[in-house]
Amino acid sequence: MNNSDKFNKWFNIFILTGMTLAMVAATLYKLRSSQTDHALLIVAAFGSLMGVLSTVCSANAKILTFLFGLFDVSIYGVMCYMSGKYGNAALHLLYFLPMQFVGFFQWRKRGGTSSSAKLKARRLGARSRWMGAGAFLVGSAVCYYILYRVSGTASPVSSSGVASVLKLGILSDAMSTICNIMGQLLMSTAYMEQWVFWIGVNVSSVVMWALTLSSSPNDSYALIYLVKYSFYLLNSLNGLRIWLALSRS
Prior knowledge:
Elements: H1 3-31, H2 38-59, H3 65-82, H4 86-109, H5 126-151, H6 160-188, H7 194-215, H8 222-246
Helix pairs in contact: 1-2, 1-8, 2-3, 2-8, 3-4, 4-6, 5-6, 6-7, 7-8
């Protein structure tokens, strides 16, 4: 086992152990509150654990990512809908959910297995990268405008302070939505550049759930998802490292 493999082994142990302990601690803390919906909290915690298993498998090019992801995206989509994050809700239930099956069969075609990282990863060309960057900017702007109008934030009755926080939340939701769409597409077709978008997803999701927690302290599952995406961010950085190497071979 070389140094890279050793690092990856211990990093995966850190992510899985840290996420599990953090989820248990956050869940127990929230369960103490009488205002917390205990059933939703436990379901959210379970979905988050499935999610971290999915993302660790994805970073290591293991096809089991799609099995764990099936549980994760279903639960997360419902939770987003219940929190009023309709962009992410529609994304996960109408796009991510069926893409778990698409990705599974695409990875099988490219040699992906659950036992070893034999997936034939690839990279985008320079032209495709520029097109991807342009699509991200245009998509984010369009998504922000739609969510902004639908949310009612443009209403003149909203105070400037509240409106500013809401706008930032909508921007995070829009950017997360577009990053998710592009990241999933590149992931299903085994492109290394997926990790650039996953990093964007995780940064914007940390901001989004932090804002939710600050504005709605009694939101029983906001803390769960804040912890979840913090660990996701660390894992996505490691995923970029691994896939850079895979796409060179």
